[in-house]
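Protein modeling request. Please complete all fields; requests missing the sequence field cannot be processed.
Requester role: graduate student
Desired output: 3D structure, token encoding
Chains: 1
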Amino acid sequence: MPSVSGAQEQPAKPAPVPGPMLNQGTIEIDTPQLVLRLVKSSQTVAALIPKKEPGFDFTPGDLLLQRSHDGYYHLGDLDLRMRTGTSGEWKSYSTAVRRTPITPLPARQGVLASADISPAFGDVPLQITRSWLLADGHLTLRFTFKNATNLPVQIGALGIPMVFNNVLNERSLEQAHAVCSFYDPYIGEDAGYLQVTRLNGHGPALLVVPDGRTPFEAYNPILGPRRESTGPAPIFTDPTPRGMTFEGFYDWMVLSQAFAENEWAKAQPWNPSTMVTLSPGESKSYGVRFLVSESIRAIEPTLAAAGRPVAVGIPGYVLPQDMEGKLFLKYRHAMRSMRVEPESALEIRRLGKKAGGDEYLVQGKKWGRARLLITYENGVQQAIHYFVTKPAAETVADMGRFLTHQQWFVDAKDPFHRSPSVMSYDRELNQIVTQDSRVWISGLGDEAGSGSWLAAIMKELGQPDKEELDRYQRFVDGVLWGGLQYSNGPYKYGVRKSLMYYEPSELPPGYYRSDLNWKSWTSWNKPHSELVERSFNYPHVVAAYWVLYRLARNHTGLVTNHAWDWYLQQAYETSIAMTKFAEGYAEFGQMEGDVFLQVLQDLKRENLTKEANSLEAAMMKRADRWNGQAYPFGSEMPWDSTGQEEVYAWTKYFGYRDKTAVTLDAILGYMPTVPHWAYNGSARRFWDFLYAGKYPRLERQLHHYGSGINAIPVLSEYRDHPDDLYLLRVGYGGTMGAITNIDRDGFASAAFHGFPDMLNFDPYSGDYGPNFFGHAINAATYVVKTDAYGWLSFGGNLKVTDGVVTVKPLDSFRSRIYVAVLGLWLTLDAGQFEEVEVNPRTKTVRVALSTATEFTPSAILRIEQPSAVRKMGKIGPISEFRQERGAFVVPLTKDGPTWVTLATQP
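Delivered output (906 residues):
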């Protein structure tokens, strides 16, 4: 990976030369919530400034000079594909291609600025007017199309470019967090919207909503140079360099049939693609309004206050087939009808009305994507996108079998000594990836090569399987220790970058595949592959040892190759080795960095004081560095969504609460909750297909590993603040999003391709492992009561009888329960929960533990109260149990569940 840091000073550059579009200057317009600055010659946006934060601009106004030339997009531009008549090829038009002067129109009541923009398109067969106006007190952008010809005109694609300041190019992290925004779509037809949130996570946030009937049908990227373009007609492009610091701009697609017939023909769209035919003399208008929300958490109340439909799904929009979901709909118009696509994919039943809206029970019936289309009495349509999985436990069990069977590589003659191991997989070819010119993918290194063997061991944390663990121990002793990780010499405990490398002189002629590009920088030679400097390789190894320690320590006969203390010592030494051999990158937060905190806690529980003090000191040195930085979220990339997970963990542990808050706010800035399974809880990521995917494109990745790992701090914060339901919704969305990557047979993909020409999971297993690490650390059932929605369960099925709340946990591990009304966090180091009963009146909790097994004769129960709920004392079991390492050891019976009652201690 490139070694760059966003915190580095940038060299001075020549002053930008303004383009001719700025010759007439700008005009400033005052609206109730926003200050709008328009380029006078084009009436496109030069700045969009919230009045409550006058030093901030949602658009890239600070780059206006550089971007004032032909080809650059601005808010207010328009993309079209049209044809005259009702057949033939589509022709593309864009106001951004060439800045032809527009024709201003006379002012009229309510209109702030208006122009005939037809000249900007050239030979366009329509008269097109663009107006900036106030509608219901909100700034509105409206386009009116009039067919002034004597033939029908079809609009097959209509895109309203969403140009906000997500351009991180050549900015330090401090600069980017001060001036930049990310934006996420809810591709929900008439109820759709775009939310624009500042990188620092602070308010205000901007909401772009439909003006009139302007459906959010699709979300199309505005790509970079023409070499990125595909398809029969020129695709809309912007010269701003796309890369690790610029994802690109997008078109809000109101109509998309012309794309669906061409570039998107092989994809399953989020919504059916449509087109419009304008008869001679006919006019039609489309547009968007701009709402300002005081904070990210206030987005839904802001939508509701503006009369927009609001949907809230519990536990989100990923539904295991055995789980009862809830959907709350809030809108001023009654619902006329519901339609599910595919038919019978979801079962929906109305339950009644709550303060948060009309309540529906939703159950997933058919595996895969499902679209719920709601039509209201006023004709407005709202699309809510679900993903139905097998029961969560079954999904994860399938993955474990797939990893340790289909992805199990055995070849005694392998020249790179990768046998036996869990290796990367190509689902398209249904075979192990034994060669890739990105050598780490087939070399068991980096996230893309370690991902599968990391996912395999994290599955065992909550669903241990003897056969799978026997295989995994062979991998640890035969490949990991002494192979991928040095077992002796000056770099003992160091983790090398890859077992595979490119050295054609060492291997028989023709060994390396001739269809791969071995001249790339990614084709490391042997000395490069043996380096131990990349810190990001270490947490994977630590996680493997830590899980094996936990299983060996808390179960009987599951792990047999070494004693528990060997695995814990390995985890400790590998953690220290990272800070010693990979100090350069170790200054950043690591994906899966929570595992170091888990190791430290277990060292303390085992009274290994020397090791615990050493590890704590090493981690405090890193945390002290982060505490001195404004935004300590760098990595080997200039901006990243990787390090926040560990930065949060250690700054919280060491009491640096200001930095913990900065970190959480930043996560919420790029991790939304919207009524769409692919975006809900999906932390922003857009470059790792280059390093881990089969199709290496710069592209929005949905439920990449950022989802799973960033959910860890969000849910941790929720357990500290159980009244903040927003945190639970975001965190649980990321946790559940991670299992959508697992297909019906158990193959787990790196991520979902978010561009509309694909909209599918990548065929490579890639770097899925960290994503499942997050799922494994987070898997839990939450029992919650809210004023708006009543009693809820995230991860289980809930019922209330005579005031007693009973929940059956249905999360993938069934080893963690959080009772929000009591601030009570129950976790099992061994055993599983069958049921939990909560009596709010008596403040007692009863838990049923699964029956004893050959490997788990006792449950090991930990009781924590991370939130100091008012008037709650210390909670513990009313029966006497032996305590060990701070946990209660509960003997299990073989003839049914074992019940344990918890209550406030006298």
